[in-house]
Structures are given as structure tokens and as C-alpha cells.
Amino acid sequence: MIGSKSDKSSSPKECDCFIGFISGESVTKSTIWKEAKSLSNLQPIFKECGLMKSQPLSPKQILDNRRGYLSRFGYCPYCGDKVDWKKILSPLD
Ligand SMILES: [Zn+2]
User: Fold this and answer.
1) Which of 2, 8, 13, 88 is spaced 20 to 30 Å from 35 by Cα?
2) Separation of CA 45 and ligand 1 centre (Å)
């Protein structure tokens, strides 16, 4: 029968897209905010230890392209989906 669903082998939209790096750590769509937050939480400690001269940043600032912490992919290397950065960076705060 045409239209039968049983033939779908690839799972649609299951990919947790690999979207870039934060300070060398690879991040996916679901971990990017967690990584940014953990880095944000560490920065005051770095600062106390004298490892950081600038002000600790918020997760949002860390994810700001201009700060240079985040390397962004244009496309997910696994599924080839275009990375919707606007969408990824806009929620939560
Ligand atoms: Zn993907």
C-alpha cells in the first residue's frame, strides 16, 4: 500500500545537532546552554584564582559571537540540518 508508515527507517528530527564548540568543548543543541552556564559559573572562580582578568560573563555573553568563546557551525555534521542560531540563542535567559 502506498502511504504505509512502516517504511520509514530514518528517524526524523531525532538528531541532537552538533552545533559547535565553547572553549573547546563540543556542544549540541541540548547542551549549549548547560555548557555556557557551567563556564559562566566557573569564571568567578577563575577570577579569584587570578586566571582571569576580565569580568565573569553571563551564559548569554559567553554565547555572544563577538566574545570568541563560541565556535559555531553552520550545519550539523551528522544530519546536515542548517543550524538555526537565532532560535538556539533566543530562548532561555
Ligand atoms: Zn543534526
Assistant:
1) 13
2) 34
pLDDT tens, residue by residue, 17-30? 999 999 899 999 99
Q: Which residues contact 67 (CB under 8 A, 6 or more apart)?
A: 57, 61
What is the Å distance from ligand 1's center to 43 Cα? 30
CA 17, CA 15: separation in Å to the nearest integer?
Answer: 5
CA separation for the pair 23, 65 (Å, rounded): 12
In the predicted model, what is the mean pLDDT of the chain? 87
- Helix or strand or coil: residue 5? helix
CB-based neighbours (< 5 A) of ligand 1, an ion: 15, 17, 76, 78-79, 81
Cα maximum dimension of the chain:
68
Our CA dihedral for 92, 54, 68, 28, rounded to 10 degrees, sits at -40
Model pTM score: 0.77
